[in-house]
Design a protein that fits this description.
Elements lengths: L2 H8 L10 H10 L6 H9 L2 H11 L13 H8 L1 H12 L1 H7 L3 H18 L5 H9 L3 H9 L1 H13 L4 H9 L3 H11 L4 H8 L11 H17 L14 H7 L3 H17 L9
Helix pairs in contact: 2-6, 3-5, 4-6, 5-6, 6-9, 8-9, 8-15, 8-17, 9-14, 9-15, 10-11, 10-13, 11-12, 13-14, 14-15, 15-16
Length: about 280
């Protein structure tokens, strides 16, 4: 199979029979370049499950507003349009993750926690957006599961017995990686480059053009989550931090220890988000 065949299939993702109805509606919403915060607020408010998930996430230790946000409209205003769109997508694919890739939600959520802490440490103006980029960094894996379920799950099993990273096995088989697929669909869904580049380049942050620092943060957050051993992303091995990201972030050994310390409480306190509908 070549990459063009894969891209052609994922660009028609909404028409796949494996797509849950609510996700199909969300993807149509995201593909509207003129979608407003009010329109998304109305959509979420009309669905009790989505409302509960969004409020649970926003009030969790992931975002630092514990117990303070009681309405969807309040959550939307605080996070902003781009973060809300990403969060909406993240919580809507939760069931697909849980049914097909057990552990991916946990891994993604822990990466989001690390990303917010690092973005705050680097004094970025919108750490919540970078956190959303980390939450969605493996969205390409969800897309591959929806489009090529058995084939892709076999590749994940193959990664367990081969001394290769999963993204290398993906490239060998599909001619493209989950990171690139994630970037392609993020563009299709009208996410800003500040989210697209960290998703697309979370394994190769040196290729990021406009948002190198954000891409470096998501790259490192993914690796910290893997090294912490939370969840399961399909990877058996922990890749090294790319020298460009290491240099760009310019964090000392002590800084990394502090990041781990700051992440510990949110990671431990987010256990209920790993079973968000229980």
């Amino acid at each position: 199979m070549n990459s063009q065949d894969v891209i052609a299939r994922i660009e028609k993702i909404e028409s796949l029979p494996t797509i849950p109805p609510v996700l199909k509606k969300i993807l149509v919403l995201l593909e509207d370049p003129g979608v407003s915060l009010q329109k998304i607020t109305d959509f979420v408010s009309s669905d009790p499950t989505l409302t509960a998930r969004i409020l649970k996430m926003v009030n969790s230790p992931v975002y630092g507003f514990p117990g303070r946000i009681s309405s969807v409209s309040h959550a939307m205003v605080i996070l902003g349009l781009n973060a809300v769109k990403g969060l909406l997508l993240g919580v809507s694919v939760f069931e697909i993750m849980q049914k097909n890739m057990i552990g991916l939600w946990e891994h993604s959520l822990s990466a989001a926690i690390f990303a917010r802490i690092i973005a705050t440490k680097k004094e970025l103006s919108s750490p919540e957006e970078i956190s959303i980029g980390a939450l969605l960094h493996d969205i390409g894996k969800v897309i591959l599961v929806m489009a090529f379920r058995d084939e892709y799950l076999n590749l994940i099993e193959k990664a367990k017995t081969n001394e290769k990273f999963l993204f290398e096995i993906e490239r060998d088989h599909f001619g493209i990686t989950h990171a690139e697929i994630g970037g392609i669909v993020a563009k299709k869904w009208n996410f800003p480059l500040k989210l697209v580049e960290p998703i697309m380049y979370h394994h190769r942050p040196q290729l990021s053009d406009k948002f190198q620092l954000e891409s470096a943060i998501v790259h490192v957050s993914n690796i910290l989550s893997l090294s912490r051993g939370i969840g399961y992303s399909g990877e058996i091995y922990v890749p090294p931090i790319h020298p460009s990201a290491w240099s760009l972030l310019n964090l000392s050994e002590g800084d990394y220890f502090q990041v781990f310390r700051e992440a510990e409480d949110p990671l431990n306190s987010s256990g209920d988000l790993f079973a968000i509908d229980e």
